[in-house]
TrEMBL record:
It comes from Massariosphaeria phaeospora. Transmembrane segments: none annotated. Residues 224-343 form the DNA mismatch repair protein S5 domain. Belongs to the DNA mismatch repair MutL/HexB family. This is DNA mismatch repair protein-like protein. It is found in: Nucleus. The chain holds residues 23 to 377 of 735 of the full protein.
Length: 355
């Protein structure tokens, strides 16, 4: 058979590139929301309100009381790789904020209708801007794309509407709004437990009752009680582990041997970012196996601080996964400490029943 002639190689159009990149970062509404929560926390907010319509596909809105955005920065806010958090590549090794690549708002603007209302404390009014494909856009045909002054409190409100409106295949992949809403509640719940000093609420548009509601002054156990119920909150023990050699510290709250549920709940934060780690989850489950009845699973909230230069946060577009050095050693130390805590609780109980 004759070889086919080579096809010529051409650069993709920029808008195609941007849409592909956006689809990798924002796979489901919850990923957009996670970025927006992290931005609000980075901005020093102490109150976060989330409103959702149709599992976030119709509307995702988050209102914060953080430092706001300068009006002068609004024109480049949603351009790719514009950020106030990272200047040099080396900064990635010492990054203290959640965001760092300036990709989230840009991505969202390529696959949704996005508008931002923001006010710094120096500004006498709030400004509202609409975005499409990374740039300021006019809200309606014939209107100016310039940000407009409006009344508003200090802080920022981000409104994302019609997510994936221009990616029909992705849009069709979502079968159930309530499934997406459940993922959103789970994510808001995670940050509600972790972010002490910050109040959270999350509800469906038009609802009077909230799916999540945590006051700013609630302590960690009360936060867990609000989100996961008293049955768990009444059976928690504090966990602390650290090791200088591996450059890490771990704090958290874990269920004792009195508690067990059908599935493991692991709220895992590494350097204040909610992440998944199948390796940590598996080891924690194995550690609990000797303490819980067969088929029983634990609850664990673990917050790890690992020296930034030992962590690579840049392995995954969604930053859902992070890699760090000496993972096995660190996991072993944490699980030893879990074992310690659980056996301490056990002995004190058997001691009490004896006397
Ligand atoms: P990154 O968080 O990686 O910097 P984003 O696209 O998420 O990139 O945000 C771009 C910039 O917009 C941020 O660096 C920050 O300066 C500003 N910003 C975004 N959300 C907020 C917010 N809620 N409050 C204040 N500033 C914000
Ligand atoms: Mg960000």
């Amino acid at each position: 058979l004759p070889l086919p002639a080579p096809r010529r190689i051409k650069a993709l159009a920029q808008d195609v590139v941007n849409k592909i990149a956006a689809g990798e970062i924002i796979v489901a509404p919850v990923h957009a929301l996670k970025e927006l929560i992290e931005n609000a926390v980075d901005a020093g907010s102490t109150a976060l309100e989330v409103v959702i319509k149709d599992g976030g596909l119709k509307l995702l809105q988050i209102t914060d009381n953080g430092h706001g955005i300068d009006k002068e920065d609004l024109p480049i806010l949603c351009e790719r790789f514009t950020t106030s958090k990272l200047k040099a590549f080396e900064d990635l090794t010492s990054i203290g904020t959640y965001g760092f690549r300036g990709e989230a708002l840009a991505s969202i603007s390529h696959i949704a209708h996005l508008n931002v209302t923001t006010r710094t404390k120096e500004s006498s009014c709030a400004w509202r801007a609409y975005y499409a494909d990374g740039k300021l856009a006019s809200p309606k045909p014939g209107q100016s794309a310039e940000p407009k002054p409006i009344a508003g409190r200090p802080g920022t409100q981000i409104t994302v509407e019609d997510l994936f409106y221009n990616v029909p295949s992705r849009r069709r992949a979502f079968r159930s709004a309530s499934e997406e809403y459940a993922k959103i509640l789970d994510m808001v719940g995670r940050y509600s437990v972790h972010c002490l000093g910050v109040s959270f609420s999350c509800k469906k548009h038009g609802d009077t009752t909230s799916g999540v509601s945590v006051p700013a002054n609630a302590g960690p156990v009360d936060r867990i009680r609000q989100i996961h119920g008293s049955a768990v909150a009444n059976e928690l023990v504090a966990l602390k582990a650290e090791n200088e050699r591996w450059g890490f510290k771990c704090e958290g709250w874990i269920s004792n041997a009195n508690h067990n549920s059908k599935r493991t709940t692991l709220l895992l934060f590494i350097n204040h970012r909610a992440v998944e780690s199948p390796a940590i989850k598996k080891s924690v489950e194995q550690t609990y196996a000797t303490f819980l009845p067969k088929g029983g699973h634990p609850f664990a909230y673990l917050s790890l601080d690992i020296e930034p230069q030992r962590v690579d946060v840049n392995v995954h577009p969604t930053k859902r996964e992070v890699h760090f050095l000496n993972e096995d050693e660190i996991i072993a130390i944490i699980c030893d400490e879990i074992r310690n805590s659980l056996s301490k609780v056990d002995t004190s109980r058997s001691f009490m029943t004896q006397s």
